[in-house]
Each structure stands twice: as C-alpha cells, then as structure tokens.
Design goal:
Largest sheet: 2 strands, antiparallel
Strand order of the largest sheet: 1-2
CATH topology of the largest domain: MetI-like fold
Strand content: under 5%
CATH superfamily of the largest domain: MetI-like
Distance between the termini: 39 Å
Amino acid sequence: MVSMKKAIPLKNKLSLRDLNLMGSPYYVVLFFLILIPLILILFYAFSERVNDLFISFSFNYFRQFLNEPAFIKTMLDSIKLAIYTTLVTLFIGYPTAYLITKSNKKTQTLLILMITAPMWVNMLLRTLAWKQIFEMLNASLLGTDIAIITGMVYVFLPFMVLPIYTVLSKIDPKLYEAADDLGANKFQTFLKVTLPLSITGVLSGITMVLLPAATTLVIPKYLGKNRYLIGNLIEDRFLTAGNWGYGSAIAIILSVVIMAMVIFTKKLDRNKGAKE
C-alpha cells in the first residue's frame, strides 16, 4: 500500500513535466515570432540613425507621421473600412453561429466545414476570384468601398463566426430550460440568456477581424484598384523607402489606436462575473 501511495504523486509529476515539454514549442514560437519582432519594432520606432548607428532615442518618426495630414487620412480611411467590415461580419456571423448551434451535431460539423473551407484556399486566389465576379457584374464597383468591404467580409467572416459559435455551443441547456420554466419566450430568452453569455465570443470575433482588416494589403490592391491604405503605407516605408524606423512608428500608432478600440469594446462585457 505504501509503494502505491508513493507511485501516484510520481505519476502526477511526470504528467506535469510531459505537459510542460509539450508546451515548449509554443514558447519557442512565441519568443522568436512574436516577442523578438515586437522588440525590434519598438527599437526601430524609438531610435534615430546617427552615423549609420541607432544610438539616439527619439520621437521624430511619430512627430513626422502626425504632421502629415495625408498619412493620418490614410489611417482613418483604413480604420473606417475595418470598422464597417467588422460590423458587417458581426451582423452576418452572429445569426450564422446561432443557427449552427441549433442544428444537430452532424449538421454542425458540416456547416463549420463550409465556413472554414475557403480558408484553405490562398487569400490571393480568393481575392482575384472576387475581382472577376465584380468585373462580370459591374466593373465600376472595383475601387469603391463596397468592393473592398465585400472582399474583407468574405475573407474574415470565419474569424467572427468561430469564436461566437464556440461560446454559444458551451452555454448550459439547463439555462434555457430555467428561462422557459420562468415563462420567458424565445426572444426574451435570447436577450436575457443567450446574448449576455455570448458577449465574450463577440468581443473575440471583433478583435480577430478589426486589426487584420485595417492592415490588409491584398484586398485593397486588387478590389480597390491599388487603393492606398495604411497597410500599403507601412509596406512602402519598410520596403520602398527603406525607413524601418518610420514604418515601425506607423505600425505602433495603428496598433495603439486599434487596441484602444478593442479595450473600449471590452467595456461592453457585463458578464465578467459569470467566469468567477
């Protein structure tokens, strides 16, 4: 009996060690692909080249950007299109995710497959397909906000549907039964039970759509007829002008603006106490 009692903690320790080893690739990826690039971006943005060396701490790149009305307008146009895209994907994605959760398990699997299947195709090919569709329907739409938003909604819709579906599918069915027992109709149950408990998924979807929609390059290029947005500006600063400091500063400004918007939307989550 003594040996068995000693073996149990040993087994648990080995399991914990195995889990840590399994998670090590994630930490490697986190360090090399996220942490190091972020440090380099901060370094370039807040450093000024002096005698071919980054030795001077400076806010010059940020001041240059803020003193360029055309650049600020480009950023605001990009954010505007990203907000419109996020709202449309939410308007389409929430009912879609809700209807999927109300289906049987086999149908849910098929519908989720249909939602995610386009993601397996290269983004450039999907964008070019939409370009051909607009050319056949009405070529004058190319270059407009409608064409760009349509392309971004198509590309980023799964990123809105999946987190909302995940949260909705985890809601305890007993809550619906309790609401029914208390005399609530379907609409009241949705407002009092489903919607509040799904806000977390909605906010996750907003976060996953807003930033990539604001910085996308391919869609404005082909559906916007080389429309110049903030993603193009950042690309030009890095690749064409070779000014990594300026490009990094613009990327940081955009990230701060987007993060401020995300934090603001998270204030809408009144269901924080449900997790505690």
